[in-house]
Each structure stands twice: as structure tokens, then as C-alpha cells.
Amino acid sequence: MDDLHPLLIEIGMEELPPRALPALRDALRAECLRRLGEAGIQPAGVTAFATPRRLALLLDAVPSRQPDRIQERRGPAVAAAFEATGTPTRAAEGFARSCGVAVEELERENTDKGEYLVHRETRAGAKLEQLLPEILAASLAALPTPKRMRWGSGEAEFVRPVHWLVALHGERIVDIEVLGLHSGRTTRGHRFHCPQPLELSRAGDYARLLEHDGMVMPSFEARRESILGQIEAEARAAGGHALIDPALLDEVTALVEWPVALTGGFDARFLDVPQEALISTMQDNQKYFPLVDESGRMLPRFIVISNIRSRYPEAVRNGNERVLRPRFADAEFFWEQDRRDTLASRESWLASVVFERRLGTLADKSARLALLMESLSGPMGLDPALARRAAQLAKCDLGTRMVFEFPELQGTMGRYYALHDGEPEALAAALEQHYWPRHAGATLPEGRLAQALALADRLDTLVGIFAIGKEPSGTKDPFALRRAALGLLRILVERELPLAITPLLESAAAGVGDRVPDAAAAVPRVRAYVLDRLRGYLLDQGMAPEVFEAVAAVAPDVPLDFVQRARAVQRFRERPEAESLAAANKRIRNLLRKAEEPVGDRVDEALLQSPAEQLLLETLQALEPRVAAAVEEGDYVGAMEDLASLRAPVDAFFTDVMVMVDDPALRANRLALLRRMAGRFDSVADISRLATG
User: Residue 451: helix, strand or coil by DSSP?
Assistant: First the structure.
């Protein structure tokens, strides 16, 4: 088609929230493509751009108007539209009049309900000028921007005040009005390097014009790669390695339009402060990239990404160093002051901080953690005295000046202060690692003491919050219970701790019971909640939902055991025997459900009449010791491999044997044989849940 041209849409505004920028770009692309598709316009491709001051889309091969569309209306049935003489009835005339045509111009269409009058007309497709305002306005309204603002005297609302709008189809301006602005071909470059307007001759010139004339890198990905390359080059020149947090890299990319990396430095005396505090200050407050040596020890250098190419880079570097100095001095002061008191001396402070009104203070929580740690000491092979002291000190660093200033260092500073106080290294590590994993997919606690403290902390929070009726609802989760439950599961499963979940929850409920008398009633709800998180955990790893349900049906209480069973069933599900055996187990359950009398699993060999019955029993008898031994050892894969050999005997049984015969003794014996076979599978999972249909 001659009118296929690139379509450029750019919305220019004041600086957008940096952490939201990639999501805004992706949402705008998705929303516009969806709405264009609904209008019958399918671009050949799309490139999305995002900088602090703009969101833009360049869509390839877009027509200037919608395709023409045939509109069809169905009228009355032909039988009701004409008299016997062929004269149109009032129904036919009314339908024709509503369509603006004569009855003779109507068409007829045969359907499964008979023959009907229809009217078809071709409607010309709407022009881009007619379509774009509604498409763009609706797309912008659907962006994930919870807080919007107004500006000037208009009624338009957006996440930031909008100052220019570009809409070009090839070389032609698409004349539209959105957010109170009329479209044009004028864009804007870098706020400082190119403050004057830039005229776009055609849509396809957008990226080149901005980069070469406007000193703006419009592509988020290209800008990110440029920043990464510059950081790595600066780090090499400085003789170190940059700590590059992906989230920080994205945030910095969203803060600049023309990135320029500079290396700064600071007084080496600050390296005596725990490097986590320095790193936190640089990354979270200043958006700098720290440098470390080959061993991971900090160097007195950092890299900053400037948004200008200054003629005086030394002035920019000095300015950033000057801003960092007082922050490091504060951290140094906190570090020195905090060490004047021991962690243990801060226990009394815990009583002044409320954890939750009904659950008491942090001191109350620490006391509950101590009880839980005592109960975990035996199963996890811990020194009870050391376990109790870890619980008592776990929250003490929250009362330090350093953690007050840098909350993200909770636990980390506990480790430093514990080592300074001469506490055992395992205890110090536990104070830091009991907060692990800090987020999904993060590192798990390493030592057994740290793992136990992490479990105790999450168990107390989960049971306590459920006991007072504040469990998560919808998207609201103020106590981060989803994260707590997933962390609990990951520690139990990935650190291979064979602990049953119900006794753990009951121990936590016993500790909460002093403040919430009916806390034990919350245990089943918490168990169900944790099990639901386990379902999500396994499904995220590619586990089939029916595999989870098959294992859940036999209710294993040890999460590690649950996962091992599920992985064995997942492997079994891929075997050629699985479908037939799953269907057989489903059939067996249906037969047992219909049985009028209770069915045991004791089989009378004297009542076996068919070779198929005898074969099934003999195969079972040969398998049962091996399956039982494999299950006892937790070798569920081996158990399921043995049980897979039942396929041929089971198929033969159902082919040759009538189960629900009139003879009560024969019927009961055959049901007992089937129950015995199903029971062997149930020692791993209810594989009938794998059956389709």
C-alpha cells in the first residue's frame, strides 16, 4: 500500500519517576498496540523509547486509515418478512427502512435456524486523525500511574505535566489533541545541551535527530548499555571492579538522557567503617557505583553518572565528592558511637518498641524467638544456650544509630557489633542471616544456627499475625507474610531441613498463646497459607498443577518431603505408563466409592479365579517390599519406577476381570486387591489426580 509509513508518537513532559520509567514505556507500547489492533491496524513492528522527559513509540508500516469494514445486520426471518403472495410485511419494510434501503436491496442468508433477511454495507475506515486521539488518551489513562497531577488551568491529568506532543505519519503531521496539547513535529533535546526546539522532517528521523542534534539517547536499552560500558571502562582505569546492582543501573538509566561517567574518590579513613554502610550510602542515597578490589574489599573510589558533558568535569567530580563526605562522616560517627555499648545492653530498649499492639513489643517477640529456638535446638543439632542467646540478640541492632539511619542494614550491623563484642562467629552470622532471603530468589542463610533463627522469626510472625486476624487479603500484605512464608519454605526445602510444618506452627502458637489465648486455632489456616505458597513455588519451577494436587492429596507435612515426592511424580508423569496407571487409579477410586460395604486390603488368594487377578497380586507382592523400602528412604523416584511396572498387570486385570460381580465375597476380594494396589501408589501420591478427562 502507498500510504504505509512509520508512525511516531512522542509525549514530552517534566522528569518522570525513574523507577517507573521502564514499566510506563512497556505499558504504553502494549496498550497502544492492543487498541490499534482492535481498530484493525497492525503495525509491522514497534520501537519504544523512554527518557526522563519523554515516552515515544515508532510504529512501522502504519496505514493512514483503517481498512474498510463490512457491517452486517440481520433482520426478520424470510418466513415472517413476506406474505404468501410475496408482498413484504411490515417487519420487512421496517427493517429495510432502518437500513436506509429498499426491501428489494436486502440479501438473504441461510442459517441453522432458517433463512433470514440481511443487510450488508461497506463502511470506510476511519483516518488516523479520527482514531489516534481516543487510542492514545485511553492508553495513557491505562498506564500504571497511581498518582496523577494537574497543571495549568486545564483539566488534563498525567503522572507529570505534559509540555509537547509529536504525531507524525511519515512526513505528515497527524493533527490530534491529547492531554490539552495539539500535535506537531517539534520535539526537544537535552534540557541543558540542546534547549532549543528540534523540527522533525519525518517520523523515521526521530532517534537519529535526538542523538546527533539533541544530545539525547532515546533508547532505554542503548542508554543502559552505554552506561554499563562507561562504568566498566572507568573501573578498569581505576584498578578495580564496580559493584553494579541491576536495579540501580536501571534507575540511573532512567535519570539521564546523555550519560557521562566520572570517577570520584573519598578519604581512605572512611574504609574503617563497615563497607555495607558506605555502599548503602553510595547506592541508595547518591546513586553512585562503588569500586572494590579483586578480593571484594572497597577502594576509596566511586563512579557517578552525570547527565551532562561538562567543560569542567573536575568541578562535577568535586561536587559529587563534596556531597558524599558528610554522609560518610555521619556513618563513621554512628559506627564509633554504637560500639560504646554492647548489643546485649540494648535488650532493655526492645521493650520500648511495639511490634504489634496485641502481640506486644520487640522484647516479647525476642522472648518467643528464644522459646522457638530451644524447640529447634534438638532437631537441628544446636547448642540450646547459643540458640537462646541468638534469639535474645536478634533484634538488638535495631536500637543502634547506624540501623536507625540505614534501616536496610538491620542484621548486617548486628553481625559487626556482635563480633566487636566477642560473640561467637556463628551467632554473629545468624544475626545477619536470619533476615535472609531478603527478597525472592535471594541468598538463603548458611549455618544451622542462622537457618533456625530465620525459621523462628518467620514462624512467630506468621502465626502471630494470623492469630490476631490480620492475614493478607487481596493485594494487602502489610506484614510481608507472603515473603515470610516463601522464605520459610525455601529454607526448609533448599537447605534440606526435614522438619514437619505443623509441629513448627504449633510451637509458634504456644509462644503466642500468652497474648492471644486462641492462637492454636490459627495453625490450620497458616498451614493452608504456607501450602498455597508451596504450590506457587513449585509451579514457578515448571511443576504441573495436577502433580502438586496429587501429592497434596496424601498430605505430607514435611515441605522437603513434599517437594521430593512432587519431583518424583513429575518424572513419573513423563513415563509412557503414567497415563494408563493414572486412569486405572481413578477408576479404582470410583469403584471403592461405590462399594456398599467397607473395603480393606486383605486379599484371599483362594478366591482369585482369573490369571489376571493372580498376576496382579503376585506382581504386587514382589514390589511391595522394594516400594516400602524406597519410600522409607525417601527414594520416591525409585518407588515410582517400581510401581510403573504394574501397568501390564493392571491393564490385563481391567480387561479380563469384572470387579462389581453379584457374588459379595468375590466382589469384596477384588476390591481389596485394587485397594491394596492403590495404597502402594498412595504411599507417594494420589496419581489418580494425573488422569485426564
Answer: helix
Kindly give, in sequence order, each residue whose CB lies less than 8 Å from that of residue 482, ignoring residues fewer than 6 positions away. Answer: 472, 533
Residues contacting residue 455 through CB under 8 Å, at least 6 positions apart:
372, 376, 488, 491, 492, 497, 499, 504
**Percent helix, strand and coil across the chain, each to the nearest 5:** 55, 15, 30
C-alpha dist (Å) from residue 392 to 362, 434, 462, 645: 10, 13, 19, 55
User: What is the per-residue pLDDT for 154?
Assistant: 81
Nearest to 176 by CA among 189, 188, 167, 163: 167
Residue showing cell 413476506: 82
3-class SS at 424?
coil
Q: What are phi and psi of 171, to 5 degrees?
A: -95, -5
Residue 430, judged by CB atoms within 10 A of its CB (0-12, 13-18, 19+), counts as buried
* Cell numbers given for 598: 467397607
Q: In which residue are the cell numbers 497458616 written?
A: 526
Name the band, by pLDDT with cuts 50, 70 and 90, for residue 1: very low
Q: What is the pLDDT of residues 558-580, one digit of tens each?
A: 999 999 999 999 999 999 989 98
Q: Which backbone phi and psi does 181 adopt, to 5 degrees?
A: -115, 140
Alpha carbons 94 and 76: distance in angstroms, whole number: 10
DSSP 555-614: --S-HHHHHHHHHHHHHHHTSTTHHHHHHHHHHHHHHHHH-SS---S---GGG--SHHHH
CA atoms within 13 A on the CB side of 681: 29
Measured CA to CA in angstroms, residue 669 lies from 30, 602, 646, 655, 676 at distances of 63, 8, 19, 17, 10
Tens of pLDDT, residue by residue over 455-482, are 999 999 999 999 999 998 878 888 999 9
Tens digit of pLDDT for each residue in 157-170?
A: 899 999 999 999 99
Establish whether the linkage from the previous residue to 437 is cis, with ω within 30° of 0.
yes
- Give, for 150, the enclosing helix (H) or strand (E): strand 149-150
Angle at 492 between CA 488 and CA 495, to 5 degrees: 120
Contact 146, 82 (CB under 8 A): no
Question: Checking phi first, is residue 179 left (phi over 0); if not, alpha (psi -120 to 50) or beta?
Answer: left
Buried b / exposed e over 551-583, threshold 16 CB at 10 Å, is bbeeebebbbbbbbbbbbbbebbeeebbebbbb
- φ, ψ for residue 133, nearest 5 deg: -55, -45
For the record, the C-alpha cell of 602 comes out as 486383605
441-460 burial by CB neighbour count: b if 16+ within 10 A, else e? Answer: eeebbebbbbbbbbbbbbbb
Give φ, ψ of 464 to 5 degrees.
-60, -45
* Cβ-contact 356, 384 below 8 angstroms: no
Tell me phi and psi for residue 537, to 5 degrees. -60, -45
Partnered with residue 70 across adjacent β-strands are: 122
Cell of residue 375, nine digits: 524447640
DSSP state of 228: H
pTM, to two decimals: 0.82
DSSP string, 330-345: HHHHHHHHHTTS-SGG
Please state, in angstroms and as integers, the Cα–Cα distance from residue 458 to each residue in 357, 487, 488, following that order. 18, 8, 7
CB 73 within 8 A of CB 107: no
In sequence order, the 6+-apart residues with CB closer than 8 A to the CB of 15 are 52, 53, 160
Q: What is the total residue count of the chain?
A: 693
